[in-house]
Amino acid sequence: MFLQAYKEMWRVSNKFYKNERKHLVLLTILVVFTSLITTILPYFIKLIVDNTHKNENINYIYILVISYCCAWLLSQTIDWIKNALSGLIAAKQETTVLIASLDNYLKLTKTKQDKIDVGIFNAEAVRASNAFSMITFAFLLVFLPVILQLFFITYILSINISVYFSLGFIFASFLLFLISVLINKKSKRYYEPLYSIKNILNSKFLEKINNAYEIKVNDAANFEVSNFKRNVNTFVEQSFNSHFKIACLMIFQISFIFLFMLGFLLVSTKLFAIGKMTTGDMVMISSYIMMLTTPSLMISQQINLLAGNTVALEKFYSYFNLEKDQLNSESYHDQDLLFSFKNAGLEIAGKLSPEVNLDLYKKKMYAIVGKTGSGKSTLINYMLGAYKLKIGKLFYKDIEITKEYSTKIFDEVAFVGQNYSIFTGSLRENLIYNTEYNYSDDQLIYLLNVFDLQHFLLDKKLTLDDDINEYLKVFSGGEKQRLNILRAVLKKPKVLILDEPTSALDLSTSIKVLSYLKNEIETLIVITHSQECVDLADEIINVEQLFRCESS
Known about the structure:
Residues 332-552 form the ABC transporter domain. By secondary structure, this protein is of the alpha/beta class. It has 17 helices and 13 strands.
């Protein structure tokens, strides 16, 4: 599961991070050079100490000292270049995973999206993006350097001390690694409940923030805070329990590192005492043991973190296996018939409707009416490809869109839903969002006047390109509704589908907006409870009668 999850993150990271392989190869080369130079430094110290004791030529000792200092300077320089490159790669990997997660989420079927808790998804996306880069760097910056250092140290010890001593050294190091792997398997089980309860906590926090108005006007702040405190206490207890057990495993592993360090220092001291080692050898071996002690501890910590990162990656990977919308780019030929349902069974509130036969033609205004929950929005969702028919067929003009929706349809069909959105950025960016057409300032200002939105600029003395972020919260429901409708109009659609477009508008504004739309848009399909809207329509589709007639 982990390998599949990491492979998927690697694939999507490569997709959005074009130079990832080149940067990682360069980083690997820097790691190899740093490991080699770091391993050589204690050997230089050995040579300096031994030659000082033997009273060798002072010029030779000068050369050794200068060589040691130059090697140290080179290792530090390469190390900082490596750190800078690592920062770039980490930022790129984390952000590309976030891009990929957004891309994946937006392409999921609406049925799957409706089942996902946004708060939990957000927490898991952020955690997975961090986990992916941390796992990558755990191998590149922790495991690989230690493996290389062990290789270089073993070679140097074998030619300076003995082959048996070097083999014992590498065997003990390998034993430490196996112990770390076993601890990783045990610690992994403690991260699962920790992440799950943290996700729930984040979700509940966002829930309260999103419903702040209802909480305030019902004087429920103290009640909600008290409930949230109970959730927090549960999280704290679980967090302490998990971290305590993980800490116990880490102390167990540190004990083995202590035995490794103590054992080889005692053996080295004995060999020095019986004349099998020089003073320089003793200093070199001590340096190597100390040099490996910190990386060994880092490996312990990284393997511990790896368990948590693995859980995070595996949990998030499940989102990439969810069902996605099946789209194609099939073209259609123009004709009067737009949408056509043939013996279609629509799933409404979990139940399959009677077979529906319905044709909608261009150059008309349709008003879709019916009680709440009767299937008005569901009917629209099938037209937009958000839902797929299980029974019957659905056509747009002369192409079948029952199973696969054509992206070409969006070239002439636009939709405005009940949930109105104003995005961060400028007013111009909000208006020309996702449109291929260019508009002059005069054209945009004219349309703002038509939709009675010119005060966005006048009241605050703003231009079309000024940032409106600080004003987002004060926009009324009616203003958001009109802005969303205008945004759709600017795409110049031939077919405009609207879900309750006048719910937040007063009577005169509703008539003004609807009249403008009817004159400017070739075909309107409108879900409405408004009598004014129904009066303007050429045809009325009552979904209750439609389903009842089909079933009789």
